[in-house]
User: What shape does this take?
Amino acid sequence: MKYIRSIITLGCLAAIAASSGAQGYRAGSGITDIMRAGPRLGPPAARAPAAAPAAAPVQRSAEFIVALVNSEPITNTDVQTRVSRLIKENPDAERVPRSELTRLVLERLITERAQLQLAKEAGLKVDEVAIDQAEQTVARQNEISLVELRRRVAAEGIALQDFRNDLRDQLLLTRLRDREVESKVKISDAEADEYLRDQRNLAVKNAALENLNLAQVLVAVPENATDAQVAAAQKKAQDLAQRARSGEDFAKLVRENSDSPDRANGGAIGMRSADRYPSLFVEATQSTAVNGIAGPVRSSAGFHVLKVLAKAQIGSGDATVTQTQVRHILLLNDPKRTTAQAVAQLAEFKRRVQAGTADFAGLARDNSQDASAKAGGDLGWSRPGQFVPEFEEAMDRLAPGQISDPVVSRFGVHLIQVVGRRDAKLSQSEQREAARAALREQRVDEAFTTWVQEVRARAYVEYRDPPQSS
Assistant: This one.
């Protein structure tokens, strides 16, 4: 399943890629973005265990310590469990010899363990509310319910608590990365302008550097669906595609028929670079004109009917993006107030606004703990990628006028209201800021790789017996 691949296996695949000279892998947006991998770091030769005298084979338990990281053990079971998940979820892993895959997984676990220890020393914590929200995000990204997500987790042989522990660890690693790396990376105006020029030159040669705004109708197909269910869903999608091509209002078709959470926005996903869309969508719409219909195309979630709302080359003078006017109320992480208490307070604010007994802007002015409070929480018009993923994922699901449930981010807890949306051409300064953000993300990845190497080098690692499969 996609959620297991995002959270568990990407780190190991990154190590495999690094062993052949590739750059460290970075997962996608939303909750998949929290799994960022460092380089492969093999055990130092100086610490390699001395050769032992030949001995008769001895039957031993499958559970034993294979390495100590600053005195914290990694067991054979830890390694073999991760290896089994990796092989089950990604066929590419089967092409790697089992002994090499096991070694790579062990090194990945050592690197993770060293980082998690550093997070603990820094006092970083992830509470149950944040894990609940991450779990719900994973379910939404797979376009299934939370109940169905947990059923699939169990079907994969993973205990729910182990799954939630994986989420906790990856959220901790993300917060540690923000603390230790992101705040130290700065991009000058000159660097941003040079990046823009490079993007304009590349855009002429590469259609993948196109900005797209797509809308979709999703006809969901249940997991383990029968042939009859698949055929019925396909026919429904084909009928909807034909109705759209005949001129029916696409947004109305979305609202009445789509199984996707973005149906409140008429199915519009938003203007963003092609590499931020599923490759399936990009390929299906590559030769489709603006306002044209593509599909239905099949994914693991079901059948998608796509409408091309806009196309523009990145870096061009007429670059257009979907902007969102948004405001929020932020309650910061506070030792005197738990996350659960902040969530409860913001949920009460939402109830009052919806009941008409309070005004969102007024509540923001009186309660929000950031600089936007004096403006009634107004954050202005934002472009895709401007906010942290957990905030943006919640914002993108809202139609104008809607208010989110409380959203936990690395900064605190937010109540978000979307005021409006528009497709707008970016000014020169806005293009520079977008370029600065994109270049900064690249630099952060590079800095993170170096930082991970430093953390790994500082850790005391004692290798014990090599991992063994049962």
About this structure: The domain at 207-313 is CATH 3.10.50.40 (Chitinase A; domain 3). The radius of gyration is 24 Å.
